[in-house]
Amino acid sequence: xxxxxxxxxxxxxxxxxVLMMLAxxxxxxxxxxxxxxxxxxxxxxxxxxxxxxxxxLGRDIYVKDGCYLCxxxxxxxxxxxxxxxxxxxxxxxxxxxxxxxxxSKRTGPDLARVGKKYxxxxxxxHLIAPRSMVPESVMPNFPWLLTTPLDYSDIKDKMRAxxxxxVPYSATKAEYERNVKKFGPKVAEMLKxxxxxxxxxxxxxHGFNGxxxxxxxxxxxxxxxxxxxxxxxxxxxxxxxxxxxxxxxVQYR
Amino acid sequence: MSQENEVETTGHVWDGDxxxxxxxxxxxxxxxxxASVAFAIVYWFIYPSWPVAGHFLTGFDTVTxxxxxxxxxxxxxxxxxxxxxNMNQYAAKQKPYFDKIAATPFKKIKADPGLNDFIAxxxxxxxxxxxxxCHQAGGQGKIGFAPNLTDDDWLHGGTYKAIQQSIxxxxxxxxxxxxxxxxxxxxxxxxxxxxVLSLSGEPHDATLVAQGSALFHGAAGCFSCHGANAKGNQLxxxxxxxxxxxxxxxxxxxxxxxxxxxxxxxxILTGINDPNSIHKGVMPxxxxxxxxxxxxxxxxxxxxxxGGGE
Lengths: 253, 310
Description:
CATH topology of the largest domain in chain B: Cytochrome Bc1 Complex, Chain D, domain 2
Number of domains of chain B: 3
Helix content of chain B: 40-55%
Distance between the termini of chain A: 53 Å
Radius of gyration of chain B: 34 Å
Oligomer: heterodimer
Number of strands of chain B: 6
Structural class of chain A: mainly alpha
Strand content of chain A: under 5%
Shape of chain A: globular
Largest sheet of chain A: none
Radius of gyration of chain A: 22 Å
Order of helices and strands of chain A: HHHHHHHHHHHH
Largest interface: A-B, 42 and 43 residues
CATH class of the largest domain in chain B: Mainly Alpha
């Protein structure tokens, strides 16, 4: 008669792999799954919106060029971090990030609230040649950003894919109406998948989010620099923390 | 071996005679394991742990803090509340200084050695984190980018009040390309450049100065912003053109007369912060990012420690 013993597992590689994976993932599951059932894991807060198509492409360049290898985007609730970078990051602030860029490696400073800290010109100059602005910097030069035209031919596909995982880009009239209610008409326009290319061109020309356009300093073309700077300039600026008590977000942890 | 009789083997046999003992785990390990289970249970009772009906067990440990409205709150332990308590503790240490700075007029801050030390040390950190990227670590500025804050030459004014305004609301001095004369020719720009260079005694072509001066005080409209004496107007941040301090026209970097003329000409022809200009310099506004106290510290730091003055 069949008897299930240690021996059964050791002699059956397939079964052993499955059981091993189960054992290893228990720790992760115990930590992660409960969060889906706790209200307030993603704090209710005003202002957080999906990225505009231009910002989203900037984010893709941020990932592509490996900025995350040296920069985190997660201000932890510690005094030194609060003093240097500003209010600690909320889970809500990265709810539309797929994948999020929290990271844990800081060769350079945290960038979670770098938006609007510097001017577009500074960002451009610093990305082309960091040491021209910060002599002791070890950040690499990224000069090609300024000369590489932004490829936005596949932006609609990207937005559709993000919509599939829950980012509220709108594909229908009803979804657009919902976005108008949730984010206001200006942002809702930007989230229309059908207008993505038009919106990229518009944002490069006019700017968005209180940051002037023409991010790369050359109005005649749309470069990777335009997209990346547009992205950097929105980081951490969506929530206006001055509108809340400074302990508003304590209750959710 | 003697073990052979006491300990079972796992039962499998490889290569005919290779067997594996099934030794029990060492006792110290087993007890260590039970101890960590016990520790986990105690931990669950002290700190937030298991999810229950949309919330979670909060644990018995508490943190007490005071928020910005002055309300004292005691809540279950969590890292955000602990941060509040931590900030309270250090705020209490710095409070005497900040209270004193808030209540003391700038002139008296300068006279008080204790406050001066506080400004120098806390100002240095604030400056390094927020301002040095543009104005450089010592505040010496960067030609073509951000002004020197350590000299007595100010675009927008070097009084405490003007410096505070610069920091609170930011600055963006705008000079239109070709001044007020969109039809300016290249020759006229050359004449103007030579006139501008003559004002500060830089190398220039003396034969063009009279024509440049006429344009400056006439059709090109330069005087309307820079003043008839070309000393600039701090209300609009127009530069003083009679000194050798250049922010945009990188005349000190340009060695020869021709290069100096070219540098100034570039500024005249393309403007500064004009949409199509290559010369762009925006001082961001800090009111949303830094607190009023921090801005006051920075104002005093720029004025007193960096040695700007008026």
